[in-house]
Each structure stands twice: as structure tokens, then as C-alpha cells.
Design a protein that fits this description.
Chain lengths: 335, 339
């Protein structure tokens, strides 16, 4: 790949034991199962999938906020390198300054008892990044202006703000320590469409201004198509397809990606055709189907899909897919 | 035109709060014909849910309906003036009987400690003369019809044993089991994944054909509206800013707010176009703007007109109308062009 990887994930697994034993065997929830992924430096990387596909867990594992069962996550922003799976306490402190998280719900993420200024300043104070209160205030004002917050609002409490303004406050808080990598977990899902576009544009501007790599987690494919450079599609703890976003949305190869795309309600009232839709629901990660894990819902599954797990292969430059019949899906009629 | 099933006239809803009387809905009027699907669109805070709840008098006790507000429902036994109903017994005729509602969060709408089946039977026995055994059979039949496999076993399970999509199906089965004339669906697919949302939308389309009830479909997702509704009403800050058939509103939006909503929507066919947000935020109901409520965020704001007086409703085409001075001027300009 031309650009160096900012985050490089190799065979990552996050498994949770369920405690009780069933017939002598312990149930294990495979939230992330053998995932490998490269996030290029400076990219706006999208991660999509249904709920229960492991998107959030993957984001958290990269931030060392979920336990890594096996595999490696390497972080390299050109100035510092970390091996996240085996990171030490002192290194982790440094890593926290470089990698941050923006949450989904701006109503739950902000303490109602702190002023906006204190909320934004807290990371600086906790990590000891500034030496005086004046310097902290200066940094807070600087980032608040970048996030288009009114400086007079810094003295107010979060309850006085609307959803869009609150989300700008959480973004300012995540960016105040000048991180190099951000995980934005469903950061626009709780917002109205009219506000959503504003926050998406803001995130893109900030990414260019501050040279940040973004991992943008979302279940909304049209949002991802509009904002991200590259996209990875997750299903049941594994990645089924990655591609540059234009290519993914124009020529999706994996039947799951196609199904997700065809499920988006069309804005055309005359296009109420019932495109072939995905039957059933995502299986439990404690009981992953054999072979290709998508075969239980796949419209083109054949006998060998039940037995053999498909290999990860490159169909076009940078377009990777895990499906036995990905070549045929292009020629076949669209789902 | 056939007589509307439910007709809302001059509905104004205000709430008593510590900060004084707050206007949530301001003089809105609309009709729903039998078997028609009306989509009600708007941002959070626009008054969609409050309007829907008023149809069943479900708003909290600090609600004030102004004197000229009228909601009339046609039933087999004559006309009911819903806002005049006072006694619980009368209200029960419409709540869950003539009108049913499905909510956004199906987990929150089922009692967690009572089996799904028991809750279905309970309401069937309240609203019909069925025996317990008949009610049970009917409930299982309804669960089966909304696509829940092994319905007889599911009947005795609790809501937490259902997945999200299944809970919403069960909710729909429950709402339809009393054969309501009107179904109010308040963001029924918002909490679901796209794949499950597509299944629920298909299911609702099938059920409309089968049962022929009218639906008030509340959502903020214009894509969902395009797929389900016959007519659309767009709400902003307690006012109806545009109404029309689904084709008129989505293809030729007249009101700047509707246009703004459509432009803000990320579209898969137009990846090269930048996203244009509607500037600013929806104002607090405590600080309702003067004149046209949308003028603080409007791109076509006319100073001295839009902030001074309230726009009246301008008819654009058959069934298509918008409340906006810009639209009004455009229409006048067309008709009054000197020869």
C-alpha cells in the first residue's frame, strides 16, 4: 500500500467467556474473531455492519478499552509506536494522548455538573499536558473555536445545548489533547439529519486541519459513503469486505454488503420494488455458524459455504473480500 | 372525496411548565382517509409525537388543548370528538380499540415481567368479547402472521427473550390484533438495523393491504417515508409547513425547510455533492421565533416579511400546500404576470 499504516491489526481476537459451562465446554462469545486490517495514515476509515457485528468492540480493542485475547494491534503515527496488545502502563499514558474516542450519545457523554470549559479542559488537566490555568484556557478556547463553539458558551452547563452543539462539545473534548487517531463510534447516529450533515462536515474539516486518522464506526451506509475514503464491512466478528468507499458502493462484491446496500430505503416513491432482502437476523456470536459465517442468511450460499471458511482475497487493487463466489456476484443480477 | 377517518382541526397543544405555558403544537389541521398512510416528518422537538399522542389523549396531565382544537374520529357507531372524552371507559374505546399505537423502543413498551402472550390476551379481552381461549388462539395467529416462527412457543416467552426485530414484530401483532381503524406508528423502525428495518417496512405494507387500516407514520427518515407513505406532512416547531402527496413533497419540495431536509440527506447516487446542513439548531419552544417559525434558519429569508407576520398556507397543486412567503410570492408572481 502506498501510505503507511497508522493502525495495523493482525489476527486480532476478542473473546469473552460466558462463565457457566454447557456440557463441560465453556461458552465463548467471539466478539472479534481473527480480524486483520490496516488503517492508512491520514485516512477517514469507515467501519459498517449491523448491531452485534463487533464494530464497537473492534474500535475499543484498538484503544485498549476491550481485552485483547490474541493477535496484535500496532500503532505508528510517525512519532511514536506502540504494540497495543502488550502495552505497558507508562506507554499507555502516552498512547491515551494520541488516540481518543468520540461517543454516540452526546446527552450521556457530558457530565451535567461541569461547565463546558471544564468538560473540554478535563483531559488536559488529567494528563498534565498544560502547566498553568492560562495555558489550559488558551488551549480550550483554541479548540472550541475550531469546533465552532461560541466562546461565551464555555461558562454554561451542557443542559443548555441542543444535540448538535453537545456533539461539538464532545468533539472538542476528544481533540483538545491533539490526538493523532480518533475512533468516532456512531457519532452522528443520535442527531437529526439537518444537524448530522453539519457534524460530518466538521469532522472532515478537523481531520484535514489537524492531520488526524479517523476510524468512523456507523451502521448508516449512506453516511459512510459520503464521508469515508475507505470502508470495511463487518459481519459477526469478522471483516467480509474492504475497499475504497467509491468502489465499495459502486461495485460491492460480498453478498452481505449488497444486502446492506439494498436495504437502504430509496428516496424514490416509485421505487418501492421489493429488492431481495436479507432474511432473518444476525446469529449469536456465542454460536458462530460453521464455514462462511454468513451462509445462514446468504442468498447465494452453496454447499461448500457451510463447510469451508472463505479465504481473504484481493479482487481488484485494494478491494479485498471473503466470499467463495465473489467473482460471480458481479456478473449476476444485482440483489 | 370520501369522508376522512380522522380529522384534526386547529389543534394547538400547550404545556404548563415551571417556565410558563409552552406551545408545542400551533394550530395544525390535517385529515387521514380510511386506508391511507400519512407520513409525519420533522426533527426532534418539532411536535410529531405530541400530535400523535393527542389523537389518543395520551399526553401528560399538564397538557392544555385550546378551545378551538378538534379531533374527530368516524367509527361504525358514529362520530367521536376525541378531545371531549373524559371518562376512562370512553377513552378505552379509542385507546387500543379504534386506534392503536406502536412505539419506537419495543423493549420499553412491553412489561418485562409478564409474558408477551399474556399482554396480548389482556388487551384482546379488554377490547373484544373473546374468551381467554379464543384470545390466545387469535394472539398466536397474529404472531404467526407477522412472521414470528414457532409462535405458540414464543407466546409464552418474555420480551427480553426476543431479538430487537422480533419485539417490533410482536408489538405490531399486538397493535393490530384488535383490528384498529387507525394505527399510529411512532418511529417504529428507528431503533432497528437497516436489514431489519427493511423487513418491518415490508411487513407493514403487507398488513396495510390485508387489514386496510389507516396509518399515521411518524419518522425523521425521509427514505422510510418515500417507501411507505401516500401523503406527507412536514412539521417544524409545532407547525405544519408543507403537506402533499409523497411524490409532490419528495420530488418538488416547496418549503425551504423540506428542501433543506432533503439536501442534508446523504444520498448514495450523489456522492460527489457536498452535504448541506440546515444551518443552526431548532430553537427552544420557550423562544419561538416571531413570524414564520423557520425564519431563523431559512436560506431564503425575506427581511421585514418573514420575521414580522405568520405565513398563510398557499395551495400549489392538487393536495400540495406550503406555509411560506417565498412560495406565496412565487405562486402570485406566476398568476399575476402582466401580459
Amino acid at each position: 500500500m502506498s501510505t503507511p499504516s497508522h493502525i495495523s491489526i493482525r489476527n486480532l481476537s476478542v473473546h469473552y467467556g460466558l462463565g457457566h459451562k454447557v456440557l463441560g465446554e465453556r461458552l465463548v462469545v467471539k466478539a472479534i474473531d481473527d480480524v486483520s486490517l490496516d488503517i492508512p495514515k491520514g485516512s477517514f476509515f469507515g467501519l459498517v455492519g449491523e448491531s452485534g457485528s463487533g464494530k464497537t468492540t473492534l474500535g475499543r480493542a484498538i484503544l485498549k478499552a476491550a481485552p485483547i485475547t490474541s493477535g496484535h494491534v500496532r500503532y505508528n503515527d510517525g512519532e511514536a509506536e506502540f504494540d497495543i496488545a502488550n502495552i505497558g502502563k507508562a506507554e499507555l499514558k502516552d498512547y491515551r494522548k494520541r488516540a481518543q474516542l468520540i461517543f454516540q450519545d452526546p446527552y450521556a457523554a457530558l457530565s451535567p455538573r461541569m461547565t463546558v470549559r471544564d468538560i473540554i479542559a478535563e483531559p488536559l488537566e488529567v494528563m498534565g499536558l498544560t502547566s498553568s490555568r492560562d495555558e489550559t484556557d488558551e488551549r480550550v478556547r483554541e479548540i472550541a473555536a475550531k469546533c465552532r463553539l461560541n466562546l461565551e458558551h464555555l461558562r454554561r452547563f451542557p443542559h443548555a445545548f441542543s444535540g448538535g452543539q453537545r456533539q461539538r462539545i464532545s468533539i472538542a473534548r476528544a481533540l483538545v489533547c491533539q490526538p493523532k487517531f480518533i475512533v468516532a463510534d456512531e457519532s452522528v447516529a443520535a442527531l437529526d439529519v439537518s444537524i448530522q450533515a453539519d457534524i460530518l462536515n466538521l469532522l472532515r474539516t478537523l481531520q484535514e486541519d489537524m492531520d488526524i486518522t479517523f476510524l468512523f464506526i456507523s451502521h448508516d451506509l449512506s453516511v459512510v459513503a459520503h464521508t469515508c475514503d475507505q470502508v470495511a464491512v463487518m459481519y459477526l466478528g469478522s471483516i467480509v469486505e474492504t475497499a475504497p468507499s467509491r468502489e465499495l458502493f459502486s461495485t460491492p462484491r460480498h453478498p452481505y454488503t449488497k444486502a446492506l446496500l439494498s436495504a437502504i430505503p430509496s428516496l424514490d416513491p416509485d421505487d418501492r420494488g421489493r429488492a431481495q432482502k436479507l432474511e432473518g437476523e444476525i446469529p449469536s456470536p456465542a454460536n458462530v455458524p460453521s464455514g462462511c459465517r454468513f451462509h445462514t442468511r446468504c442468498p447465494i450460499a452453496k454447499d461448500n459455504c457451510r463447510v469451508d471458511a472463505p479465504a481473504w482475497r484481493e479482487l481488484a487493487p485494494e478491494h479485498m473480500v471473503a466470499c467463495h463466489y465473489a467473482d460471480e456476484t458481479v456478473a449476476a443480477a444485482p440483489l | 372525496m370520501t369522508q376522512p377517518l380522522i380529522s384534526v382541526e386547529n389543534l394547538s397543544i400547550k404545556f404548563h411548565t415551571d417556565e410558563g405555558l409552552i406551545t408545542a403544537v400551533d394550530k395544525i389541521s390535517f385529515d387521514i382517509a380510511p386506508g391511507e398512510v400519512l407520513g409525519l416528518v420533522g426533527e426532534s422537538g418539532s411536535g410529531k409525537s405530541v400530535t400523535a399522542k393527542a389523537l389518543m389523549q395520551l399526553n401528560s396531565s399538564n397538557t392544555v388543548y385550546t378551545d378551538d382544537s378538534r379531533i374527530t374520529l368516524q367509527t361504525d357507531d358514529g362520530t367521536i370528538d376525541i378531545l371531549e372524552l373524559k371518562k376512562a371507559k370512553e377513552l378505552n374505546l379509542i385507546r387500543g380499540g379504534a386506534i392503536s399505537m406502536i412505539f419506537q423502543e419495543p423493549m420499553a413498551s412491553f412489561a418485562p415481567a409478564i409474558t408477551v402472550g399474556k399482554q396480548m390476551v389482556e388487551q384482546l379481552m379488554l377490547h373484544s368479547s373473546m374468551t381467554k381461549k379464543e384470545a390466545r388462539e387469535h394472539a398466536i395467529d397474529m404472531l404467526d402472521r407477522v412472521g414470528i416462527s414457532d409462535a405458540a412457543r414464543r407466546f409464552d416467552q418474555h420480551a427480553f427473550e426476543f431479538s430487537g426485530g422480533m419485539r417490533q414484530r410482536a408489538m405490531i401483532a399486538m397493535a393490530l390484533s384488535t383490528k384498529p381503524k387507525l394505527l399510529i406508528a411512532d418511529e417504529p423502525t428507528t431503533a432497528l438495523d437497516v436489514t431489519i428495518q427493511a423487513q418491518v417496512i415490508d411487513l407493514m405494507k403487507d398488513l396495510v393491504e390485508e387489514f386496510g387500516m389507516a396509518i399515521l407514520f411518524i419518522t425523521h427518515d425521509l427514505g422510510v417515508i418515500a417507501q411507505t407513505a401516500d401523503r406527507v406532512a412536514v412539521m417544524y416547531l409545532g407547525e405544519l409547513v408543507e403537506t402533499g402527496s409523497v411524490r409532490q413533497v419528495i420530488r418538488e419540495p416547496a418549503h425551504p425547510y423540506t428542501q433543506g431536509l432533503l439536501n442534508a440527506l446523504p444520498k448514495l447516487e450523489k456522492l460527489d455533492e457536498p452535504l448541506t446542513p440546515v444551518p443552526g439548531d431548532i430553537p427552544s419552544p420557550l423562544e419561538r421565533p416571531s413570524g414564520c417559525v423557520f425564519h431563523t434558519r431559512c436560506s431564503q429569508f425575506i427581511e421585514g416579511t418573514c420575521d414580522a407576520s405568520i405565513p398563510s398556507v398557499t395551495a400549489l397543486a392538487d393536495g400540495h400546500a406550503a406555509a411560506c412567503f417565498v412560495v406565496d410570492q412565487a405562486v402570485r408572481g406566476k398568476t399575476e404576470v402582466p401580459a
